[in-house]
Amino acid sequence: MLVQFAPLRLPLRRRLQTAAVLQWVFSFLALGLPLSPAQCCLVLFLVLLLGDGWVLAVLYAAWLYLDWETPARGGRRSNWVRNWSVWRYFRDYFPMTLVKTVDLDPSRNYLFGFHPHGVLVAGAFGNFCTEGTGFSALFPGLTSHLLMLPFWFKVPFFRDYIMSGGLVSSDKSSAAYLLGHEGGGQVAVIAVGGPPESLDARPGALTLQLRNRKGFIKMALQHGAALVPVFSFGENELFNQVSNPQGSFIRAAQERLQKAIGLALPLFHARGVFQYNFGLLPFRRPIYTVVGAPILVPKTPHPSSEAIDQLHKTYLEKLNQLFEENKAAYGLPEDRHLEIV
């Protein structure tokens, strides 16, 4: 196959859009690769500690000790970082659109269930960790937080950067802190399918790992937080993935690794920076993240299994309704439906 190279002459805005997505991929995709930002931050800390900057390293270590619980206590957002112009170029690369279907009362706390996970939850990051798509303008009075694996908040310096966008730890105490906030106004965004769902993320896929995931339902009941289904049309269209059907050697190895380290490693590819045939940049395909109507939940500190099952059933119905009502508007034929596993 001949390599299809990008044109030499492209408008500057297109170059800036690619650069914006490239830095995001480098920051949040390549976490485990050599010279990723997380590793660079760790190396910088060790260089300071072992060199002439040891005083700064010791002071930061003291700060880290005092600040250790912040990722589980609402984090430390920066409106300045969330409004960087780079996120507008990031938005326009796909492009990405946040769609509101109803107003949300800022006196309540909300748990947004984000679907599908996709390979990199690009829609969740772009819509809820930046102001590129105008979350604060669409939902005045609400503060969004995207839950992320706790491990990354232990990396010096890097933790402060990811918290600035609104990322917080995904452990239970973190979600409880947000959903139990007095006065309301807090939004905890959870990619419910988690890393296992990313193994099914490929163009055309509509499989959601949701049938037996009820922890977020119990959390909503315990705190009386309204549940809001969110479906991101186009999320699975951004990357191709190596075939890994259930029962295959590749899938078995991926699932074993996911259980061991908590991270799924989908074998994905899309396009490169200067050519369109192969690389780790996502395809330029539109993402429409549709925020549904809230499901009001009575506060039940000790919910029964029956109450959890009933609310879970209601949530699945509302999510499916949201999908069915919007699929035609975003390019899906009438015979396509969600597959809940």
Task: Tell me about this structure.
- With 341 residues, this protein is α/β, with parallel strands linked by helices.
- Helix content is 38%, strand content 14%.
- The protein has 13 helices and 11 strands.
- The chain has helices at 12-28, 37-50, 54-66, 79-82, 86-93, 122-128, 135-138, 158-164, 172-179, 194-198, 215-223, 249-261, 305-326; strands at 96-100, 110-115, 143-148, 167-169, 186-191, 207-208, 226-233, 240-241, 268-269, 287-291, 339-340.
- The strands form 3 sheets. Strands 1-10-7-2-5-3-4 form a 7-stranded mixed beta sheet, sandwiched between helices.
- Helix 8 links the parallel strand 3 and strand 4 (167-169).
- Helix 1 (12-28) crosses helix 5 (86-93).
- The longest helix is centred in the last third of the chain and has 22 residues, at 305-326.
- It is globular, with a radius of gyration of 20 Å.
- The mean pLDDT is 93.
Short description:
The chain has helices at 12-28, 37-50, 54-66, 79-82, 86-93, 122-128, 135-138, 158-164, 172-179, 194-198, 215-223, 249-261, 305-326, and strands at residues 96-100, 110-115, 143-148, 167-169, 186-191, 207-208, 226-233, 240-241, 268-269, 287-291, 339-340. It is of the alpha/beta class. The strands form 3 sheets. It has a 7-stranded mixed beta sheet, with helices on both faces. It has a two-stranded parallel ribbon with strand order 6-11.
